[in-house]
Design goal:
Length: about 160
Amino acid sequence: MTALKSFLFLILAPGVVAGYIPLALLRRGAQIETGILAYLAFPLWAIGGIILLWSFWNFLTQGHGTPAPIDPPKELVAAGFYRYVRNPMYAGVLAVILGYFLWFGYWNLLVYAILVFLSFHTFVTYYEEPVLKRKFGTAYEDYLQNVPRWIPRFR
């Protein structure tokens, strides 16, 4: 049942933010030629998709829950991409959106990516991190000290 809830959340949250909304924004607003950079869209889409799916898998298998606030993980997830950055799912969504901008060249997609990032950052800073500190205590405090919020640190 947890897997089904996780799948539904994947469709509803990242699916809407990184799929439906960017596609709805196509052909609206000014367009620029992104040139050879357009081909970076393919690795961004692939990397973003892999990060999302792998992170959902980690929540299911290591966290014994879903990324959804209605059924949060029971265990702190610090495996997979979570070893390098605290918010890989958000980073994956942003990679997909930036891929849309590079491929299609609509400025509103870049503005949308910036707004999504600011929303994610605000949510993480003012809601998610305080809730996780209360729930996981010292383990999460140690995690905060060792893993950066947005820019991966590979060691």
